[in-house]
Write a structure and sequence with these properties.
globular; 12 strands; binds flavin mononucleotide; Pnp Oxidase, Chain A; mainly beta; disordered C terminus
Length: 176
């Protein structure tokens, strides 16, 4: 029986994720970006993160060869930017509000967090490649508001729930 790729993709979409924009490039070659939801943490020591990129993407050679990349975790107000950098061939950052970083590729302004990464490894995995980055610098912007969420092929919002049972957590009513 043939594997139903469309049904597989739809089932994977039941896993809610955030959205990140990966940027790479240098002052000589203009910077590019791509919208992804495959971002994940890997290791605390050393600090490693990963994401995967479709090897058929026009952006693949660029990211696979770049010495590093910057991860911007998008806020709910970034929906239009996310949609734009997910467009076919739409990798240019022209007109997008950016913030400079120490290592090179800029981050997106008003992101929830930014991770500046050196490329640790690129591993082929089927039609994608897994890019692992070593986090050299990071920053958090708790004033950026709610995250942009992706679920079942649509953008959504996070419903703030209870902390997991047995784990310490804070409620909105907790004092400082
Ligand atoms: C919510 C969302 C998440 C995505 N996540 C990934 C991803 O993790 N990896 C990837 O290679 N492409 C991902 N894409 C697709 C790219 O953003 C983009 O559409 C694709 O690279 C366009 O093809 P091109 O690079 O050949 O122009 C995602 C798209 C959307 C809308």
């Amino acid at each position: 029986m043939a594997f139903d790729t469309k049904a597989f993709r739809d089932a994977l979409g039941c896993f809610p994720t955030g959205i990140a924009v990966m940027t790479a490039g240098s002052a000589e070659t203009s910077h590019i970006g791509i919208t992804v939801n495959s971002f994940a943490s890997v290791s605390m020591d050393p600090p490693l993160v990963l994401w995967s990129i479709d090897r058929r993407s026009r952006r693949y050679p660029y990211f696979a060869e770049a010495p590093g990349f910057t991860v911007s975790i998008l806020a709910s107000g970034h929906k239009a930017v996310s949609a734009r950098l997910a467009g076919q061939g739409e990798h240019s950052l022209d007109g997008i509000a950016l913030v400079p970083t120490d290592l090179g590729p800029p981050g997106l302004a008003d992101s929830l967090a930014i991770f500046e990464c050196a490329r640790e490894s690129v591993q082929e995995a089927g039609d994608h490649a897994i890019l692992i980055g070593r986090v050299l610098k990071f920053s958090r912007n708790d004033g950026a508001g709610a995250p942009l969420v992706y679920f079942r092929g649509r953008y959504g919002a996070l419903a703030q729930g209870e902390p997991p049972e047995g784990l310490p957590g804070r409620r909105a009513t907790d004092g400082d």
